[in-house]
Write a structure and sequence with these properties.
The chain has 146 residues and is mainly alpha-helical. The protein contains 8 helices and 3 strands. 60% of the residues lie in helices and 10% in strands. A hairpin with a 2-residue loop joins strand 2 (26-30) and strand 3 (33-34).
């Protein structure tokens, strides 16, 4: 897996905000990371460090969720699932039961179909479209971060 590519993709997906904003059910800032409270601020430097820490947590959560089938998940699909884990959190990713069952059966088209059928797919726009394509094909699009 290419950590630098993953971080750059997350930066593009999340965008940077130095000031906390309300995002779904929490205050977030930086590159989509949880802020301590409304009005909190973060520098670009600190946001990049926080993002790196959060990516490591998302990787650990991914490895935990998919430890029984990790050998059948290529790097592109792993990065897509880690991106989902970063965006949703481990608890919410575990609720994608049908998608996760399809992954364990190495049925990537069904996994992609189940991701499309989720509320998440409609909430995150182009990000979800790209992630679903990566799950289905196991390949990065030419226009994506390399």
């Amino acid at each position: 897996m290419n950590i630098e590519r993953l971080i750059n993709t997350l930066k593009l997906d999340e965008g940077f905000s130095p000031v906390a904003y309300f995002d779904n059910d929490q205050w977030s800032f930086g590159f989509g990371c949880k802020a301590p409270q409304e009005g909190a601020m973060i520098s670009l430097h600190d946001a990049e460090a926080l993002l790196a820490d959060r990516v490591q947590l998302a990787i650990r959560d991914f490895e935990d969720i998919y430890s029984d089938c990790r050998d059948q998940i290529n790097d592109i699909r792993a990065e897509a699932l880690i991106n989902m884990c970063f965006n949703l959190g481990k608890t919410k990713l575990l609720k994608f039961r049908k998608m996760n069952a399809a992954i364990r059966h190495n049925d990537w088209m069904e996994a992609a179909h189940q991701a499309v059928a989720s509320a998440w797919y409609g909430q995150v726009g182009k990000r979800s479209e790209r992630i679903v394509k990566e799950l289905a094909t196991g390949e990065k699009e030419a226009t994506c971060v390399k």
